[in-house]
Amino acid sequence: MGTLFYTFRTFPTLLLSSLELQNAPFIFGNLKQDLINFQDSFTKHRPTQIIGFAKGSYSRFETITINHFGRNKRVLATDIESYVLHFPHNGFGNIKLSRRPTNTFCNWTMFQIAHIAKPLNIPVQFIHIAPKDILDLKDFLKSQYNESVEY
């Protein structure tokens, strides 16, 4: 039990190492295949929460994930339009709250993971982090989630 972290292969290695996570996060590269591997990890470890992060141009907690990918595609063939994500209501340090959802690969992954986690009441968070705010992310993770699980 504990926190299952995930990120993407595009997240800079130097920033990742500076987070000093107890266990390495799951890293998405090939989204569809890695989602299958993530589901296996999820089933094996049964985390109590899931936190994803990716590099961004400005730092923000995503507040919602939507069933849209790109302009005209849906993430999943379901009537569910969105999931509310977990986030600190006042942000944390320089990490503010997102004003609107994205429709990129980050959102695709967030929606897929939220769809898996929601029926089990497992909170899902996602943070876009600017490199200049990496210490705020580190402090947030340490202050809130000091447990992690291996995948």
How would you explain this protein's 3D organization?
The protein has four helices and eight strands. It is of the alpha/beta class and 151 residues long. The chain has a six-stranded mixed sheet with strand order 2-1-3-8-4-7, with helices on one face. A two-stranded antiparallel sheet has the order 5-6. It is globular, with a radius of gyration of 14 Å. The N and C termini lie close together (12 Å). 32% of the residues are buried. Mean pLDDT is 89; it is low at 147-151.
List keywords for this structure.
4 helices, disordered C terminus, single chain, 151 residues, two-stranded antiparallel ribbon, alpha/beta, 30% helix, 6-stranded mixed β-sheet, 21% strand, 8 strands
The side-by-side strand order for the widest beta sheet comes to 2-1-3-8-4-7
The description of the largest β-sheet is:
6 strands, mixed
Structural class: alpha/beta
Instruction: Please state roughly what percent of the residues sit in beta strands, choosing from under 5%, 5-15%, 15-25%, 25-35%, 35-45% or over 45%.
Output: 15-25%
- From the spread of the alpha carbons, the general shape counts as globular
Radius of gyration: 14 Å
Give the overall average pLDDT: 89
- Number of helical regions: 4
Write the SSE topology.
Layout: E1 3-8, H1 13-18, E2 26-28, H2 31-45, E3 49-55, E4 60-61, E5 64-66, E6 82-84, E7 96-97, H3 105-117, E8 124-129, H4 134-144
Parallel strand pairs: 1-2, 1-3, 3-8, 4-7
Antiparallel strand pairs: 4-8, 5-6
In short:
With 151 residues, the protein is α/β, with parallel strands linked by helices.
